[in-house]
Amino acid sequence: MQPQSQHGFHPVFCTIVPPHVLDKLSQSDNPDLAGPARRTLESDAARRTRRQMATVVTVPTARATEGEASDKPDRTLYDCGHRTRLPGTEVRREGQEPTKDASVNRAYAGLGATFELLLKAYGRRSIDGNGLPLIGSVHYDEKYNNAFFDGEQMVFGDGDGEIFLDFTVAIDVIAHELTHGLTQYTANLSYYGQSGALNESVSDVFGSLVKQYSLGQSADRADWLIGAGLLAPGVQGDALRSMKAPGTAYDDDVLGKDPQPAKMEDYVHTGEDNGGVHLNSGIPNRAFYLLATALGGNAWERAGQLWFDVLTGGQLAVDADFASFARLTVAAARSRFGEGDEAEAVLKAWSEVGVPTA
Q1: Whether pTM exceeds 0.85
Q2: For residue 160, what pLDDT band results from cuts at 50, 70 and 90?
């Protein structure tokens, strides 16, 4: 279990690139590939430890707005200058014109797109529901192969240029990490085992929904990939993960083959990566994909609404497993839509991935 703060939060250090990917990369015979991966792993481990220690003695420091929450985002972007001190130097504040730095502008847009989906689709003002300012830092460290949410802000590396490109290029990566903040302020799912995999899956779900919403894509037109465009041209793969077909996102000589399972019968039991949170998230990811495509139309409307209802409904335990989450989605479907196509589609989706709902 993660330590809890005085407010009941346990803000965790969540990265978009799983440790098993970086570990595989760190074993490359090519020092240009292994070096950045190894340094990224070491940096992540150190910051994860600091986050856990800080959570024991402090409360989240991200400041909430006072008074009535605004319908407009409150974004501030910083430049780390390839160092690790956060947040860095302020380079763009809400309402200011775009800068000459594409990374800053992409991060600014991605934070705004996430805010817009939450507001327009679900009536929620920022990730805390009360207009919480959104903070992002770009150009973190040298050749840093990751992006993360540390419980207070977003941070983006530039990638090594050999395997990973700039982590602001994928809007779903930005939305994925910010959704960890949404989870922190709502269901507060523990970052271990099945609850941790649900935490990761929820971030993939809303990351994909933000991308689909921003592109105006219906469920049948979406690629259902997480991090498309993030892998460098020479890498054999399409993205970090596939919600449509977990285990097929990449198959590369250096990165290896995508190890995500798509069904409970292939659930990975491991002590690494907090009990395989980035691996087993493929199972609820596919369930959501199956539901969204079965219902058709815009995935953020019915399928996304049900996931949002469960996440914010107050009945999801912090240590929830897949089955308890699945049962709540069924209940949410019946509550919102009655005994219709939606409830039947939810039952079928979980059945296809082997998660019981009875």
Answers
A1: yes
A2: very high
Residues 6+ apart with CB under 8 A from 16: 146, 147, 148, 167, 173, 176, 177, 227, 240
Establish whether 278 is a catalytic residue: yes
Cβ atoms within 10 Å of 121's Cβ, excluding its own: 18
- Scanning the chain, the segments in alpha helix (DSSP H) are 19-26, 31-57, 102-122, 171-185, 193-215, 273-280, 282-295, 303-312, 322-337, 341-352
Q: Structure tokens of 74?
A: 């409150």
Distance CA 166, CA 66 (A): 35
Does residue 5 carry a pLDDT above 50? no
**Rounded distance, CA 358 to CA 298, Å?**
28
- Residue in 177, 180, 200, 342 annotated catalytic: 177
Residue 1: pLDDT above 80? Answer: no
Q: Does residue 54 carry a pLDDT above 60?
A: no
Task: Considering the candidates 20, 139, 176, 278, report the single residue annotated as catalytic.
Answer: 278
Share of the chain above pLDDT 90, in %: 88
pLDDT at 343 (0 to 100): 97
Yes or no: say if 198 and 281 are a contact pair by the CB < 8 Å rule. Answer: yes
C-alpha to C-alpha distance for 127 and 308, rounded to whole angstroms? 12
The answer, yes or no, to whether residue 105 has pLDDT greater than 50, is yes
DSSP states of 116-167 as a string?
HHHHHHH---STTSS---EEEEES-TTT---EEE-SS-EEE----SSSB--T
Site of tokens 């949404």: 182
Other residues' Cβ atoms within 10 Å of the Cβ of residue 327: 19
Of 260, 238, 259, residue with least CA distance to 249: 238
What one-character-per-residue DSSP string does 230-269 give? -B-TTSSBS-SEESSSTT-SBEETTTEE----SSGGG---
| Per-residue model confidence (pLDDT) at position 49 | 72
pLDDT tens string 204-243: 999 999 999 999 999 999 999 999 999 999 999 999 999 9
Q: Name which of 299, 58, 319 is nearest 187 in CA terms.
A: 319
